[in-house]
Amino acid sequence: MTTSHTNPVDPGTGIPGHAAPLVPPSTEAKTAPWSGEPGQVTMLLGGSGGPGPDIHGTPYTPDWYHSLKALLGEGPCRQLGIYAVPADYVLSIVIPVYNEKDTIHHILKRVREVPLRKEIVIVEDFSRDGTREILQQIEAESKTWNDPNNTLAVYYHAKNRGKGAAVRTGFEKATGNAVIIQDADLEYDPAEIPRLLQPIVEGQADAVFGSRFLGDQPHRVLYFWHYLANKTLTTLSNCFTNLNLTDMETCYKLFDRKVLQDIGPKLAQDRFGIEPELTARVARRRYRIFEMAISYHGRTYEQGKKIGLKDGFQALWCIVRYGLFD
Known about the structure:
By secondary structure, the chain is of the alpha/beta class. The chain folds into two domains: 37-80, no CATH class; 91-324, Spore Coat Polysaccharide Biosynthesis Protein SpsA, Chain A, CATH 3.90.550.10. The chain contains eleven helices and seven strands. It has helices spanning 40-44, 62-72, 74-80, 104-113, 131-142, 163-173, 193-201, 224-241, 257-263, 274-284, 309-324; strands at residues 91-97, 118-124, 150-156, 178-181, 207-211, 253-256, 289-293. Helix 2 crosses helix 3 (74-80) and helix 8 packs parallel to helix 11. 38% of the residues are buried.
């Protein structure tokens, strides 16, 4: 029995034995909002593809929002984090920094790309690895920025005081309508900040916590005992605050300005105890807290992770202390 093999025929040329040629990308495909120039997709969805406008206008302006709402509908816009921010609204991003010479340029670039009007407040906590000198250079260069979306202020501690002290300094200096904490180590992605801000801008929340344990956002798999300690601390914190948070220790805590004006003067913790202290003080005053899923790109101790066992015991003390007393 013999089997005949028929060569394919190119439908474009009619020549047997030739497969259809690869069709080069057409200019027509580039007219779709999801397949245009680099950055167009992320700008459409409120990401960080670049600081400039996309085909629908400047991100988070009313014109941009109404253009996409007409295209997609109100429901999809809400699901995608597409909304309008008032023209005079400013977000303060407080970045505590200690020994981050390898990441400080990268995190600042990502923060600047967030398509919102921002006041970037960096607090340098007496680094010893050259970070301080890098920030002095960045601070000088920032004076020549022609960037209406970004202003930069850098404050320098005269000695190492800890993350909590740096956060408190940043809160004191911040002047924006809302304030968020951003670590300098690339574990948290600034592109997610606009989505976290939405409940505050729309008047639904007074504080928003980004949870590493909600939803299906990418999450690097690392230390089991760190995970267990985090869940234990969060559960204990919930017992004292009567909240149902999934990630009390998250870096991404975003506050409306009125909240920090209220609790800011009372903050006292200098190290990682600032996380349970912030949570307890906000809960005690019955502010509206939202929690939203975020991605997490955790790093190892070899890569510079700083929190340790001592900080876990300090967090336990802070949970009890601020859970019982103001």
